[in-house]
């Protein structure tokens, strides 16, 4: 009896699903991704929620690039951005991607800012054959997971192992650290990826990892763990988290009397970090990043002045730069593809080589990761100061 | 040395829990309602304090007082609008309403100002570090503990020495009999909400100063933890909430100190489960049989 009920419930559910699927299918067949003179590009970013600052920065950079590209157009066509807000949540990122591919029928999607939210879109990209470019998702899993290339997924940033490796080399050679502690956000793929690469390279350089601790995003009290870290007496602490917690951790660390250098990745790059930690606590901390607005390179300085002209004298951060580069990365591929067809764009993206962008000249490798340089920045009285640039 | 440092960490965290737990326990003591919106009053208090400091340019004490006043009014408002019409309804109906109010405040707040976090300015209170025998004590943690203790003493005086306190104890003991004695039960209940919410507002400001980052959903976890603290001490018993809060803070600090920082939240709720199984009346409660 029970079985029968279940079966009938299942039947009615699948019927309902069929009806719904039918609806969406017929509704969207009229639209297309390249009607006449516009090319529709979906934007799936963290416009609100925990890491809203990344998403909003990328959107600003992307809008600047789009405005510049649309001055001439791509073969007479203009790019139209269709934005969805994934609220910094993976489930929202997935449903945003579904909406963009099925309802809006976009040619390609830009997003998301974090690795977790980018991974949440991979399956949708693969199923619908729509290229997704993550501007700042640095986890290797985004483009290459389970020994398989996600061939419709691309990225503009470098990957986690690279940031971790650069940080480990910097710690050993510039700071001359013999021992290091690692403090990760255990709820983030990004943080774990950086930490693994850091540990490997740091030990290869002859250093010793004396303590490994973890926290979970949204924690606010780190004093107990920091007290524990302090008693391990490391020369250097690697903290590959996001700015909300990283800021709190650095502040609380300095209060507990833990004065050693801290280093993080591009997840620290937000003006909020300085507000949360305070300029003084951030002295003697470093980050690896995609670019620096203080880099004297001409291409970078042109971008900085164009950005300042559009956004009331605001100095562009790395996410602004990555958003901007993603716009050009995509535009270059659309131009070479000669069409707004998703699959042709994907093929053109794969062939990207020696493309000169703000965050470095890059060529895509076989895992869809750009090969390019990383910049190391130091915080001095709350300002990011260009320290050095490291080539791959 | 490390242990003493950890105990200090725990007491600072625990005094925030204790302040929030007081509101839970007072409201439960008087209307037998777990006011789940209490954690959100704490959040509102934190934001009121933030805007008082940044926009109105006030210093710590006035900001604390403004936040406590606004929260007291807000608490009364919640009680009058949401709970008073349900005074004679089943307890489950009131409980569900409390959860609804909590969600309404959280998402209403996000709708109005957005979900992005805000950072308290770093210079509200001096941040000197004292080193005593290798233990570093932050002047803020002493101030926070001090403010919490002062507020708790004031609360004890109100409850035990003032007329409204006497009325509260009477209503808590037997609301109907209190009414017969000429006590205005509605006003007494409102006063309880006002005092409880004011304490949550104070906790919000202290939290902001100590932990810097505030956001609209910040009240959820501390609210639940404070609930655990209230149950731990014996719900409805005011000294129980204070001890429960401090104890929970210390337990959490020690769990992290032992290297299990990821288990910290889980341990807090394991404490809740253990207390409910073995000592449902809490540490300070008397085991009284319910009449059937």
Automatic annotation (TrEMBL), chain B:
Keywords: Amino-acid transport, Cell inner membrane, Cell membrane, Membrane, Transmembrane, Transmembrane helix, Transport. CDD domains: TM_PBP1_LivH_like. It holds the Pfam family BPD_transp_2. InterPro entries: ABC_transp_permease, BCAA_transport_permease. It is a multi-pass membrane protein. It is found in: Cell membrane. The keyword Cell membrane applies. GO terms for cellular component: plasma membrane. It comes from the Bacteria. Its main location: membrane. The chain crosses the membrane at residues 7-30, 50-78, 90-112, 132-159, 189-212, 224-250, 262-284. Belongs to the binding-protein-dependent transport system permease family. LivHM subfamily. This is Branched-chain amino acid ABC transporter permease. It comes from Peribacillus castrilensis. The lineage of its organism: Bacteria, Bacillati, Bacillota, Bacilli, Bacillales.
């Amino acid at each position: 009896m029970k079985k029968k009920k279940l079966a009938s419930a299942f039947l009615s559910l699948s019927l309902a699903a069929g009806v719904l699927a039918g609806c969406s299918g017929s509704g969207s067949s009229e639209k297309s991704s390249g009607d006449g003179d516009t090319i529709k590009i979906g934007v799936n970013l963290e416009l609100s929620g925990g890491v809203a600052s990344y998403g909003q920065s990328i959107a600003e950079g992307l809008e600047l690039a789009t405005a510049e590209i649309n001055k001439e157009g791509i073969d007479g066509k203009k790019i139209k951005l269709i934005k969805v807000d994934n609220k910094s949540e993976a489930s929202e990122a997935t449903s945003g991607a579904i909406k963009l591919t099925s309802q809006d029928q976009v040619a390609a999607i830009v997003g998301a800012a974090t690795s977790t939210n980018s991974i949440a879109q991979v399956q949708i990209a693969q199923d619908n054959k729509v290229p997704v470019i993550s501007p700042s998702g640095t986890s290797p899993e985004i483009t290459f997971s389970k020994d398989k290339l996600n061939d419709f997924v691309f990225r503009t940033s470098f990957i986690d192992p690279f940031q971790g490796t650069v940080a480990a080399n910097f710690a050993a050679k510039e700071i001359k650290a013999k021992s290091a502690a690692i403090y990760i956000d255990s709820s983030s793929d990004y943080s774990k990826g950086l930490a693994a690469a850091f540990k490997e390279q740091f030990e290869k350089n002859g250093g010793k990892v004396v303590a490994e601790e973890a926290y979970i995003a949204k924690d606010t009290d780190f004093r107990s763990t920091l007290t524990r870290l302090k008693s391990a007496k490391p020369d250097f602490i690697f903290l590959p988290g996001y700015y909300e917690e990283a800021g709190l951790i650095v502040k609380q660390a300095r209060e507990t009397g833990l004065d050693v250098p801290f280093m993080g990745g591009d997840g620290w790059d937000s003006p909020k970090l300085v507000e949360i930690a305070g300029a003084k606590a951030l002295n003697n901390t470093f980050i690896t990043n995609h670019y620096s607005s203080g880099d004297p390179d001409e291409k970078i300085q042109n971008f900085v002045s164009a950005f300042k002209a559009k956004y009331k004298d605001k100095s562009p951060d790395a996410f602004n730069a990555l958003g901007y580069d993603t716009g050009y990365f995509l535009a270059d591929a659309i131009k070479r593809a000669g069409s707004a067809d998703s699959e042709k764009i994907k093929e053109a993206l794969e062939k990207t080589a020696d493309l000169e962008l703000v965050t470095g000249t890059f060529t895509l490798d076989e895992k869809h990761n750009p090969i390019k340089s990383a910049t190391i920045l130091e915080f001095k009285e709350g300002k990011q100061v260009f320290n050095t640039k490291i080539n791959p | 040395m490390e242990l003493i440092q950890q105990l200090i960490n725990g007491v600072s965290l625990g005094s925030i829990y204790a302040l929030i737990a007081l509101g839970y326990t007072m409201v439960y003591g008087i209307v037998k309602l777990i006011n789940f919106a209490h954690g959100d009053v704490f959040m509102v208090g934190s934001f009121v304090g933030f805007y008082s400091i940044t926009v109105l340019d006030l210093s710590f004490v006035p900001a604390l007082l403004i936040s406590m006043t606004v929260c007291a009014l807000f608490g009364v408002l919640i009680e009058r609008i949401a709970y008073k019409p349900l005074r004679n309804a089943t307890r489950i109906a009131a409980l569900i309403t409390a959860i609804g109010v909590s969600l309404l405040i959280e998402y209403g707040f996000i709708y109005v100002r957005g979900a992005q976090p805000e950072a308290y300015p770093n210079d509200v209170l001096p941040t000197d570090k004292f080193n005593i025998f290798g233990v570093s004590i932050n002047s803020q943690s002493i101030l926070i503990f001090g403010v919490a203790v002062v507020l708790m003493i004031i609360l004890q005086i109100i409850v035990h020495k003032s007329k409204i306190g006497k009325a509260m104890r009477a209503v808590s003991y037997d609301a109907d009999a209190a009414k017969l004695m000429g006590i205005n039960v509605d006003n007494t209940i409102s006063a309880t909400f006002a005092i409880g919410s004011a304490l949550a507002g104070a906790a919000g400001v202290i939290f902001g100063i100590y932990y810097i980052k505030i956001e609209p959903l910040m009240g959820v976890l501390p609210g639940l933890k404070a609930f655990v603290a209230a149950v731990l001490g014996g719900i409805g018993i005011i000294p129980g909430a204070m001890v429960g809060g401090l104890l929970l803070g210390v337990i959490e600090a020690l769990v992290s100190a032992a290297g299990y920082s990821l288990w910290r939240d889980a341990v807090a709720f394991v404490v809740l489960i253990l207390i409910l199984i073995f000592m449902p009346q809490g540490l300070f409660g008397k085991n009284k049989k319910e009449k059937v």
